[in-house]
Amino acid sequence: MNYDEALNFIKEKERLGIMPGLSRIEKLLSIMGNPQDELKIIHIAGTNGKGTVANTIAEALMKCGYKVGLFTSPWVEDYREQIKLNGKYIPKETFAKYVEDYAEAEATEFEYLTGIMYRYFADSKVDYAVVECCMGGKGDCTNAIKTPILSVITSISIDHTNFLGNTLKEIATEKAGIIKENGTVVLYPNKECEGIFEKRCLETNSKLIKIKEYNDFKQNNYEVVKKCLAIIGIECDFNISKLPARQEFITDNIMIDGAHNESGSISLKKYLPKRDITAVIGMMKDKDVDAYLKNIAPCCKKIILTEPSNPRSMKAEKLAEFARKYCNNVEIEKNPKNAVNKALKNYDFLLVCGSFFLARDIRKDLIKTIIR
């Protein structure tokens, strides 16, 4: 099996959708020899910021000379960016070999990816595995592990309600499921649901370390990372990682942001420039689009609505019903690349936002266009 065949095989599993629960991943990992038990894992859950925190911790550890595996999602540039060893994507031939070896297992796409990640990191004998939950915590397939050396909880907000619950406390309870017996937990400021994590730590005899509120999500994330490194016994200078599609400036007047919930929109709004903003927006139909748009749309002089290439995408016409409540200049262009090209013809500041799937659709071509 070559890489393209392996990638097609694993992507075909997307048709199974999201299936929370640990039974399938535990069976897969057992077949693989339970590689997760060989690793020193830093496990990270949360709604917003967990990818940034995971990357920053991994980069700091590498700076100190450690061999570090990093598992994050979703991908934006390359499918393999979700599994990195010392900052480099898992090699294509290695990925293909693992897929071929375990092709007979019954698992979803992300469960396969998780199993491959644990096996690859164990085979590579990493010093640390920094592992980001895909969604949730208790039922997330990355959670088929014993007590990690650190459990990290980042910012909690309303998202994935069809899987995690409709209230902040319900979602926090699911995220708290990554806390295991006799663990150590670093908690981002989450005032409204802090008690959920305190209760879980009491139940599991875990040590809870709470980060104080700095009223700035970037500073809060920095302090979370700083505390995690201190617990491990590392003191070093570090900068918060800059990731694709996380308030990413392609130029000084083009930004891409994949945040897709109310909390993400509040954070994004804080960092938008005081300029005439043309926004290209696409979102998934299972998101609270009204809560997102009420923060972003009023900041925009013009909005072009589009449909990312994902079956969960909200129809542009439906999205327009929400957007027009907050902005009086709204257009529809269903093709994402056409929407961006249309925006590029006349803009002061271009914002592409609302979905990582949208960022995936347009980012490479947009960069090529700007460079050219």
* Radius of gyration based on Cα positions: 20 Å
- Overall mean pLDDT score? 94
Q: Would you list the SSEs in sequence order as H and E? A: HHEHEEEHHEEHHEHEHEEHEHEHEHEH
Q: Give the biggest beta sheet.
A: 8 strands, mixed
Number of helices: 14
Name the shape in a single word.
globular
Record the strand order, biggest sheet. Answer: 4-3-2-5-1-6-7-8
Number of strands: 14
The helix-and-strand class reads alpha/beta
The percent range for helix content is: 25-40%
Describe this structure in words.
The protein has 372 residues and is α/β, with parallel strands linked by helices. 40% of the residues lie in helices and 16% in strands. It has 14 helices and 14 strands. It has helices at residues 3-12, 23-31, 50-63, 92-101, 109-123, 161-164, 168-175, 194-204, 217-232, 262-270, 289-296, 316-323, 336-344, 356-371, and strands at residues 41-45, 68-71, 83-85, 88-89, 128-132, 150-153, 184-187, 207-210, 248-251, 254-257, 277-281, 300-305, 330-332, 349-353. An eight-stranded mixed sheet has the order 4-3-2-5-1-6-7-8, sandwiched between helices. Strands 9-10-14-11-12-13 form a six-stranded mixed sheet. Helix 8 (194-204) links the parallel strand 7 (184-187) and strand 8 (207-210). The longest helix has 16 residues, at 217-232.
Annotation keywords:
single chain, alpha/beta, six-stranded mixed beta sheet, 14 strands
